[in-house]
Design goal:
The chain is an alpha/beta fold and 337 residues long. Helix content is 29%, strand content 17%. The strands form two sheets. Strands 9-10-11-8-7-6-5-4-3-12-13-14 form a twelve-stranded mixed sheet. The chain has a two-stranded antiparallel sheet with strand order 1-2. α2 links the parallel β4 (72-76) and β5 (101-106). The two termini are 32 Å apart. Bound molecules: S-adenosylmethionine and iron/sulfur cluster. Iron/sulfur cluster (SF4) binds at residues 30, 32-34, 37-38, 77-79, 107, 129, 333.
């Protein structure tokens, strides 16, 4: 086997995939408690000194962009909008040369207020998560009565020009799996782009069950009953969502079928956790500690070399359907979704 290219170049792995899309978790904390993500009582959060500072995050993103060929930066969490320094971080990343595209995955709470300053700082667009349009269901599913804030957040983002506003929905059997057409109608009415995400084994409670999860096939069948869906002629590239034109287009709907139609062969993602660990995959069982190196005085070249080594070891696929599959120790909220 050839050795990892540590001294120069992009983030390539043994299978020839190149990571250009960086997901950065800004916090593991959240103001919701979605049942498929976190227990009601929350989780043992990272302590302050464990978290990367704003300056440390910007430095690592700079290394990724200037030395490792990253062109897309997505901030996530936990809930990124609760990180106090968010606007400053976005602004510093937007000032990098070359400037990466910058987006944010959020539950939308507080976005109505923050959208104009995030846009002015250089944020390009947002993904907002919304699994139901019914207030009682929302309250049950997220354990917080905040549907109105989320809807206001989406509207605020669209108004501020953080477009296209993408909406992420996870369907769960017996909870909201009857809502697929309604969610799509809502998205079409507001000019948002909806993507359904198959539920993955990344919850802190380890409650995921392959036999009861709602599959992409079921979601598409439900949509087909009310809409004409045709294959999207646009090139999919490394995008996780497979997309369809709705009623002839131009509106689209996407499905991220991570479990039943994995797209690992085209994956172009690399991840940085809020405590400075590089992960090659959401489902990786290994992490590579950049925070320790950074705080130990490593220069940019050494940080880049460590990042390259971490990505070189990326596995071919997540293996969720394999009997030997092991759920990662850290939940989605700590890795950064
Ligand atoms: C972990 S959240 C972090 C960002 C933000 N708090 C939010 O909810 O958008 C990112 C995305 O992951 C999704 N997610 C969380 N747990 C999941 C799971 N077990 N399977 C599939 N998607 C999940 C959420 O619905 C959300 O769209
Ligand atoms: S999915 Fe996002 S909003 Fe929901 S609990 Fe997890 S981190 Fe929070």
């Amino acid at each position: 086997m050839t050795a990892a290219p540590t001294t120069a170049g992009v983030l390539v792995d043994r299978y020839g995939r190149v990571a250009r899309d960086l997901r950065v978790s800004l916090t593991d904390k959240c103001n919701l408690r979605c049942t498929y993500c976190m227990p009601a009582e929350g989780l043992p959060w990272l302590a302050g000194p464990q978290l990367l500072s704003d300056e440390e995050i910007v430095r690592l993103v700079r290394v990724a962009v200037q030395q490792l060929g990253v062109t897309e930066v997505r901030f996530t969490g936990g809930e990124p909008l609760i990180r106090p320094g968010l606007v400053g971080i976005v602004s510093a990343v937007a000032a990098l040369d070359p400037r990466p595209r910058i987006s944010l995955t959020t539950n939308g709470i507080g976005l109505a207020r923050l959208a104009p300053s995030l846009r002015d700082a250089g944020l390009d667009r947002v993904n907002v998560s919304l699994d139901t349009l019914d207030r009682a269901r929302f309250t049950e599913l997220t354990r917080r009565d905040r549907l109105a804030d989320v809807l206001a957040g989406m509207a605020g983002a669209a108004e501020a020009g953080l477009t296209p506003v993408k909406v992420n929905s996870v369907l769960m059997r017996g909870v909201n799996d009857d809502e697929a057409p309604e969610l799509l109608r809502f998205a079409l009415d507001h000019g948002y782009e909806l993507r359904f995400i198959e539920q993955m084994p990344l919850d802190a409670q380890h409650g995921w069950d392959r036999t009861t999860m709602v599959t992409a096939e079921e979601i598409l069948a439900a949509l087909h009953r009310e809409f004409a869906l045709t294959a999207d002629p646009a090139e999919r590239g490394a995008a996780p969502a497979e997309t369809w034109l709705v009623d002839g287009g131009p509106a689209r709907v996407g499905v991220i079928a991570s479990v039943t139609r994995p797209f690992c062969g085209d994956c172009d993602r690399t991840r940085l956790t809020a405590d400075g660990q590089v992960r090659a995959c959401l489902f990786a069982t290994e992490e590579s500690d950049l925070r320790g190196a950074l705080r130990g005085g490593a220069d940019d070249a050494e940080l880049a070399a460590r990042w390259r080594t971490a990505m070189w070891g990326k596995r071919a696929g997540h293996g969720i359907d394999d009997p030997s599959f092991l759920q990662p120790v850290r939940p989605m909220s700590a890795i950064g979704g």
